[in-house]
Specification:
Layout (H helix, E strand, L loop, with lengths): L4 E2 L2 H21 L5 E7 L3 H17 L2 E7 L5 H13 L5 E4 L9 H7 L11 H8 L10 H12 L8 E5 L6 H10 L3 E5 L6 H6 L3 E4 L17 E4 L3 E3 L2 E3 L12 E2 L6 H19 L2
Parallel strand pairs: 1-11, 2-3, 2-4, 5-6, 5-7, 7-8, 8-11
Antiparallel strand pairs: 9-10
Helix pairs in contact: 1-9, 2-9, 6-7, 6-9
The structure holds NADPH dihydro-nicotinamide-adenine-dinucleotide phosphate (NDP).
Length: 283
């Protein structure tokens, strides 16, 4: 028996894209055309696919998008010089450096060169600082965790007072996710590869967010009956996409995001929102 209610990220993301489209039209009437530049270094096929979907999503809502492709052997200095030029360009409201970068480049150093006011990924330390000091409305929140919060909000789930467990502590997903749940007044636990009794930690969660990157890592018997389970993982197994949460979770959880069609579309919708926000702030 399938018990969990599906949280339809695809539908909710489509709703958000419509809202963004209307905002872009208003900005265009005021002669502001929101612009996003994506910097792609190297030939990683997954990155190329992500960048193409971001570009398509921008076009659909009227955001001007541009991809700057650089060869794999680009030096860190060359990359930083390009970012500096984009920082100065008034037509560029958002800058996104597609990760991962080739091994010879220090990704943290590169992300620090992006003007925080154009850092639509929300990875610059200034924006991370805003998030952890309750000033996220002044900066940019990373797209994936912001998308998860929007999924919760639009499904009518209020984290206040609930036990939230986040599995994964990356700067991209786990840590900002924990900050946002904390801001929403959940009691938050962050788990990682050294956590002991992970199963017990997960079973306590009213809201369980999983961002580990291991196919079907969390099974149904790790989940509290009726819990809200958000599966951030994107894994490719035998040519098909699957999440970090096993199918058996459908029988136990109260709400669950599918993969694909859950968090993934929300990440892109949030990127569009952040780009429009960056453009609005220039007015
Ligand atoms: P990282 O590899 O950066 O982080 C993975 C985290 O999982 C780490 O904190 C790691 O712990 C933890 N972990 C690994 N193994 C275990 C274990 N056995 N038990 C408990 N914790 C463990 O990945 P990301 O955060 O970047 O991404 C996570 C997943 O989300 C991936 O599948 C990725 O593809 C997907 N993703 C999806 C997005 C979307 O739009 N839907 C966007 C971004 C990512 P430790 O820190 O101790 O090593």
């Amino acid at each position: 028996m399938v018990g969990a209610q599906l949280i339809d990220g695809k539908r909710i993301a489509a709703e958000i894209r419509q809202e963004v489209k209307a905002e872009v039209a208003e900005l265009r009437e005021r002669n502001v055309v929101p612009g996003l530049t994506v910097v792609l270094v190297g030939e990683d096929p997954a990155s190329q696919t992500y960048v193409r979907s971001k570009q398509r999503a921008c076009e659909e809502v009227g955001i001007r998008s541009e991809v700057r492709k650089l060869p794999d052997h680009t030096s860190q200095t060359q990359l930083m010089k390009l970012i500096d030029e984009l920082n100065q360009d008034p037509a560029v409201h958002g800058i996104l450096v597609q990760l991962p970068l080739p091994g010879h480049i220090d990704a943290d150093a590169v992300l620090r060169t992006i003007d925080p006011a154009k850092d639509v990924d929300g990875f610059h330390p200034t924006n991370v600082g805003c998030l952890w000091t309750g000033l996220s409305y002044q900066g940019f929140v990373p797209c994936t965790p912001a998308g998860v919060m929007e999924l919760l909000r639009r499904t009518g789930i209020d984290p206040r007072g609930l036990d939230a467990v986040v599995v994964g502590r990356s700067n991209i997903v786990g840590k900002p996710m924990a900050a946002l749940l904390l801001e929403a007044n959940a009691t938050v636990t962050i788990c990682h590869s050294r956590t002991q009794n992970l199963r017990d930690q997960c079973r306590r969660a009213d809201i369980l967010v999983v961002a580990v990157g291991k196919p079907r890592f969390i099974s149904g018997d790790w989940i509290k009956p009726g819990a809200v389970v958000i599966d951030v993982g994107i894994n490719r197994v035998d040519g098909r996409l699957c999440g970090d949460v096993d199918e058996s979770a459908w029988e136990v959880a109260g709400f669950l995001t599918p993969v694909p069609g859950g968090v993934g579309p929300m990440t892109i919708a949030q990127l569009l929102k952040n780009t429009v926000l960056a453009a609005k702030r220039t007015l």
